[in-house]
Structure prediction request, 306 residues.
Amino acid sequence: MMMSSEFLRGHADALSRFAKETVDRARAAPDDFFLQLAAKNQEDSARAVEHQLLLDEAEEAGELFDLRLIGPQVNGCISLDWFIKAMEPLSKAWKLAAHRLRYGTDSSRAVGADVVSALNLKLAGIGHGSARIFVTGNARPDLTGESLLQATLVQIFRLLNSSQDDFYDAVDAIGGRSAHQLGEFMRRLDDAGLAAQFTWESPRGRQFWEGGPDEITRIRALLDTIREPERYEEVIQGRIAGIADTGRLEMRTDNGKLLVRFPLKLTEQVQRLTVTSMTSIRVETACYWDSVQKKDIRKRQFISVE
Prediction:
């Protein structure tokens, strides 16, 4: 936590009242230079604390994403042109991942206004230390009972911190187009000789990614192995062994345990399935070729109950 929001709220209220009193006095004495200066300084201080309070409350709500850029050419500031170019693929990666998580498919064009509105991403400020950028979003649950912002950030951090063993599952969660945009962001970091740190205080604990030069190289190498998977539909029959709020259901079949991801828009339909009951479901199976381990990896996405 940055600071107690309860303390900040009281501090902000007190500063605002104090500033208002001084401003009122300054308006009544427009020729008093020192009173005008005091009024401006107090207003600035009140606004600074109010902004800190907004960030603190966003952090408590799981709505604050902290991006820190680190490098020899970064000293509290960074090239505006580079920043705009670098943040574009990162923003696209989040939006494409959110679309994939909500609908279960990659967006074939620009992400729809419903997803953009649900995320409500905003540049919320610049902090001290290297080039530190605060981004906020909307963590309120949607009609499925889940927060699209938080579901998206969970999967983004999962991919960034993934090992070879769970990499393709993480890619399948956010989709190939989102993964490609993340790779583009990493390339732009690499080209600029920058490192990065991502931090998010999620409802389930602190999420962190340390993007030093070696880590950026590792992630880029993994992302470069991605090829469009073969996709086909199939019907799976088995017993429901469990349903997780992370968008997964587990089935026990004659061929063993299978994990099936389901999009947020189908949460209600999936939750109607009864644990231990025998059922048949239609899924889309994506078959990825793992060029490192030299084997096929299959990931399944729920479509409907048969």
